[in-house]
Amino acid sequence: MDGSKPTVATVSGPTSFCRAAAETVLGDPSSIKLRLKVSIGPVPDASSLAFTLGLGLDFAFSPLLKLQRTPYGGRSLFAAQAIPAGTLLHVCAAPHAHVVYRAFRKEVCARCFAYATQAQKRVQAGFGAGAPYFCGEACRDAWIVVAQIEQILADEAPEEHEEQLGITKNGTRPEMAKEQLDRAWGRVEAWTKAKYGRSGPPLPFALDEGELDIARFAVSAIVRRHQEADPPFAEPELAISRLLSLQDSELANVRMRPYLLRAHLRVCAFLGAALPPPLRAHVGVVRQLLARETGNAFGIWEGDQLPEGRISIGDSEKEAEDTRDMREREMFGWGVWVSASLFNHSCAPNVRKKRSGRSLEFFTLRDVKEGEELRISYASTDKPVGERREALRTSWFFDCMCSRCVRESS
């Protein structure tokens, strides 16, 4: 690869022009691969991935940890030896997919999540008023492909085709079966393939602000999937197989929150129309990602120290369940860090997490015995047992039977 810098086209204006501009920048598969090669950075050393688990996947874990099946189902991380308090257990280097809320795009770097005040220098992607900002040129250049596509998503799209797509505003019924979900997604995928081909008419409809955040979140995973098709420049730790190893909560989620199915189908149809052909081929990632988002997403918070607890992503406002005082913190967005999701929950956790740039770091809160399960808290731990269990049941779809819940409920 030569050292020349690829030309960056300006993407702005009406939807039809945006698509044409996107086709110019990203339409040729070799062109987008060149950009992705420039953006990815160094490939992880193969030796860092040599720790192969007997559970179908290989993750890079410290010798302090072992991943194994639990008596109550699923997988979890356990201490392979006695571990003192304050020990760094695991670092998940980057999210598989993430998004910074639109309201924070001028303050938070779209790639590394560094916060910048108005007085601090920021770098914009340079192709439109709604384009994201970055802490510097390195982050901008590494994220330029996603940023360009995000700008396309922000344009208006006047046509409405929800009836043709079979997307109803009534949502789903509590008794909805997986087969019905499959048919709904199948209609959307077939419609976009038939109608748009390699270059289509104006986009099917405009997304609202919450749907745009979901679409931008999905685009980061779609670009990641495209990178994976180019092995010398792919990132093994961010492979789609890792994402697919997470629990699929799609059916439980749409039964609990019927309005989400409509939003997710609209996002898929929109991206099927808006993306340039090299990325449109991976639009199936949208369903795969959103089916695993609930229960596996972490909030991106102001400051390096993350509050304890994952987030519930069932509502458009992204409800945050937290063990710390949130009045002094803001949540900038959310992301899925795959290996981080292997930590199970306890209302009396022995592990805490801390964000450092794009990475999530996990430390022991106390001395841990060999063979002890390593757990973080997903939700607020300062509430009564009934409220804690209800929050976990509605957002993570399990009944908490941790030692604290059992003790407090007996």
UniProtKB/TrEMBL annotation:
Q: One short Pfam family name for this protein?
A: SET
Looking at the record, the residues that make up the SET domain are 63-379
Q: Which SMART domains match?
A: SET (SM00317)
- GO CC annotation, single: nucleus
Name of the protein in its database record: SET domain-containing protein
